[in-house]
User: Fold this.
Amino acid sequence: MVEQLKPFQVGFGIEGGAEALVHAIRRFCTAAHDEPMVLVKFDFKNAFNMLFRKFMLGEVKDICPELLPLLQQAYRLPSNLYFTDEPLFSKRGYQQGDPLGPPGFCIGIMRMTHSLLSRLNGWYLDDGTIGDVLPTVLGDIKKVLSFCDVSGLSLNANKCEVFFVNASAEDEARMYADISALLPGIKRVDESSLEILGSPIFELGLERMFSSKIESIRLMCDRLKLMDVHPALCIFRKSLSSCRFNYLLRSCRAFLLLDKLKAVDEIFRSTLEVISNAKVDGFSWDQASLPLSFGGMGIRKVEDLAVPAYLSSVYSSSNLSDKLLERFNLRIIDNDILHLIEEIPQEYIPDNDALKEVQKNWDLPRIKSKFSEMFDSSEPTARARLLASSTKESSKWLQVVPSSQLGLLLDNNSARIAVGLRLGCQLCEEHECLCGRNVKKDGLHGLSCNKSGGWISGHDEVNKIFSHAFSSAGFPNLVQPTGISRDDGKRPDGMTLIPWSHGRQILWDVTIKDTLAPSYINQSSKKAGSIADNAERYKHNHYIRLKENYLFTPIAFESLGSMGPETKIFIKKLGSIMRKASGEPRSMDYLLQKVSIAIQRRNSSCILGTLGRSRIDDFYLL
Assistant:
C-alpha cells in the first residue's frame, strides 16, 4: 500500500517523509525557473472527521481490499456517542485514535492526489502542497474543490496559503487575483512566513522561528527549577534539551544562524547549572554536551548538531525528494550542499552516500575528536574521571525513571553531587575532615576517607540489591552467612542456599573502590575499570581457602560507576537467569540501574560525611 501512495503521499509508512517534502519544496522555491511559479498549501476543515464513510469504504475496497473487512466492521454503521443522556450518531470520518485512520485517510484521497498535474505535488496526510505555473495550479485547485464535493471534505480557504516564486509585483498581483477567485480569503505569504509542516523554508523565517523557540524553551526550562533535582534533570535531558530542536535542525539550514544556536546552548548550560546547583562552565560544560558513552550528560549542543543533522537528513531523504522534483529536473544534492561539505574537514565526512544517510556517521568523528582533545589537555584526575564516566554502566543512574516507589529517586544533595562528580564541578568549600585532613573544593577526599562513614551504608545497600537479584533469579540466599569465614575471621557478603553450578553454592563479596583516590590515579587515568579489576584479584586471593568448597565471585565497582571485567561477566549471567525466571527482558538493565543509584547515594554520604554532624541544642519559637 505504501508503494501505491508514493511519491505524492509521504505521511504514512515512509521514514523521513516530512523532511523529504520540506527539502523538495525548499529546492523548488530557491531554484531559478524560466517563468513565474505558484506554490499553494491546502488546509482542510477537520479533515479526518469529514470523509463520507460510504465514500471512504468504497475507496478502500478498490485500492486496498485487504483492509475492507476490518474497516467495514468498524464504520459500516454509525457509531454511538453520548452527551449526558442524549445519543449522538457519528456518521462521518475516522474515529480519533483509530490506528487505521492515517492509512485509511490516505487511501481515501489517493485518487485525487495522484490526479493532480502540478509538477510539484506533495502531501503529508491532509496537508497538501502543489507548485507549478499558474494555469496548471488553477486546474488542480478546481480538481481539489470537485473532490471535496464528492468526498465530504471541505477546504478552509482562510487557512490555505499561496507563495510566488520568481514573479514580479505585477505578476504576483495578477496571479493572486486568479487564485482568490477560486479560494476567497487565501493567505499570501512571503519568505519570512512560508512554513511547510512546521519548518521554515527561508532563512528569514528560520530566524523568526528560532526566536520563538528560544522564548518557549526558556520558559519551560525556567519552570524546571520548581522541581526536585533528579526529576528535573530527567525531564530536561529527555524532553527539553537538543531533542526539542531535532526536527528543525534536520529540516532547516539552522547552521546559518550561529548566534541563535549559541543562545540556545547558553540556555541549556544555565538550566543545567540551575537544576544541579553546580557551577557548569568551560571544561565541565564541554563534557556535559557529550553523549553518555563519552562521559557526558547527553545534553548535546545544537551548535554541534546543526550540520550533521541537516546533511544526514538531505542524504537520507534525497531519493524521495528527487522523485517529488523529477518533473522539474531538479535534484536535492545541489552545489550548495556540495560546497557545504567541502568546508568540513575530510576526517569528519562519511566515506560513501549510504553512510552519509545516518546522522551518527557525521556526528561521531566530531565527538571522538572533542573527547580526545579534552582528554589530552587534562590532568590525571580529570582523565580518570573522563575514562570512568565513559563506561556504559557509569551512566545508568541518568537513565532511570526517578521514582521513589521504585527506589530510584535521588534526593537533591545526592543528585547534585552525582552531577558534580561526573563533570568535575565544585562540590563544597574547603574544610577540615573528621580525620584531620584538608578537603578541597572538589570534595573527593570523602570518597576514600574511612572517617566519612558513607561507605558502610553504601556497601550494605549494594549487597542487599544483589541478594534480592539472586532471589529473583530463583536462588534463596543468606547475607553475611555465619559459619563461613576466612582465616582472619571475616565473612563473605552472601551465599546461595542451593547450588549455583557444578553442585556447589556460590559466595559473593561486594567492594566499591574510589576511582579518584590519590593512590589509584596513576592507574585509573590510563584504563577505565582497572581499579575494580585489581579489587577482583585481591578478593580471589583472600578467599582462596573457601574456593575449595564453594564457587566464588567478586562484585567490584568503582565510585564513578565502572565495574571489573569478572563482575561484568557475572552480572550478564545473573541477568540472563533473572530474565528467564521473571520474563522481563530488561532485568539486567534494571539491576544495574539500582546499583548505580546506590553508588551515587554512597558517594553523597561519603562527601557529606566529611562535614561532620552539628547538633542544634536550642530551639526557638518565633
